[in-house]
Amino acid sequence: MALVLACGTTDSTGEEDDEKGPDLSDQDLTVPRAAGALEFTEPCRAGKRLTIAAVGDVLLHSPLQKQAYERGFESLWTGVSRIVGQADLTYANFEGPAAAGVNSSGQAVRDPGLVFDNAVYTSYPMFNYNPGLIPALQTLGVDVVSTANNHAMDRRSLGADKTIEAMKEHGLPFTGTRPSTEPDAPRYAITEKNGFKIGWIACSFSTNGIPDPKKQVLMCFTDTAEIERTIADLKTRTDAVIVTPHWGVEYVYTPGKDQKDLAKRFINAGALAVFGGHPHVVQPWEKVTAADGREGFVIYSLGNFVSGQTPMPRRASLVLYLGLTKDGAGKVTINGVRYVPLTMRSWTVEPSDKAENSSETRNLVETMFGKWNAMGSTEALTTTPSCR
Predict the structure, then answer these.
(1) Which residues is 350 bridged to in the sheet?
(2) Residue 19: pLDDT band by 50, 70, 90 thresholds?
(3) Which CATH number do you get for residue 217?
(4) Are 377 and 353 spatial neighbours (Cβ–Cβ below 8 Å)?
(5) I need a labelling partner for 7 at 20 to 30 A (CA). Which of 188, 252, 281, 292 fits?
(6) Is 297 among the domain residues?
(7) How many whole angstroms separate alpha carbon 303 and alpha carbon 251?
(8) Is the pLDDT of residue 107 over 80?
(9) Contact (CB, 8 A) for 302 and 282
(10) Which contiguous run of DSSP H or E holds residue 44?
(11) Collapsed DSSP state (helix, strand, coil) of residue 242
């Protein structure tokens, strides 16, 4: 079976990582323009509150891994630790395995430790990170990750198992994959914070053509009925369900009909929100009203959080904040959404209002999401500024 390669770049050493995908020019694509503020019906409703932060792809190309192994993973995101950490609960997409001592053929070998050896720990086209990335993300404030994406099987079945073992060892909840030895294991996660129980379901559109004979990765478009059943089940056991699909066309700002249709299916099945990823550029958000009248939220792509992709649109992203309110009867609704624009610069991610030469990336994000819901990087977090 042919591999479908994705998530490439060219690093500062001249190492060619570029994928051979469709010939798309970022400059020729039109950025969707926000028409106004994104608002929900009852922003000031009384009750307990929870704020969830979401960031995009943690995609460590070779320059980022080399820097992380020399200077620490925190060097990749020092500038955003406060704005990520001020949320109650934080989600990220963990794009690639963290499989100690596994090579690209999925075989166990001697582990080199914290070094980019380009054998065990590698970049495009088949990623693998040192498991030390996991506690570093936890220190940043990340509470739950997706492990379902097109690079989930880059170290084959053993790599997926090793990644799961590392997540469990460090106590980081994950969603979207399961061990090869547990064919009936759930591929969802449940987190509890501030009196809220949140269910998480991740899925992917692909594993880049790498076989997944034991169905370790939950697939968005072929396992849709299973995902809908899981949403319905989790809805009875949690306060809210969030689905995090890996989908869409890379480097395209506009979500496809398949993304929009699937998002609506997930909301109608009972999900409160959908956080999308994979395009490596941001895609719009919207409020989706379910058939039963519930208000749901969808962001089609969070873009890259940290990556070595250098074209301007791939360095533009955001920290998304989703505010929830739970009333005395236990009903949970969305009270509002805010965001802080981010820029990837010199192998570190920074708030766009602090980073040098970030006007293009900030303008891109603010054009798509509007300035009405934007926040400055030093602003106190609230998802309902009108309720002050």
Answers:
(1) 343
(2) very low
(3) 3.60.21.10
(4) yes
(5) 188
(6) yes
(7) 9
(8) yes
(9) yes
(10) none
(11) strand
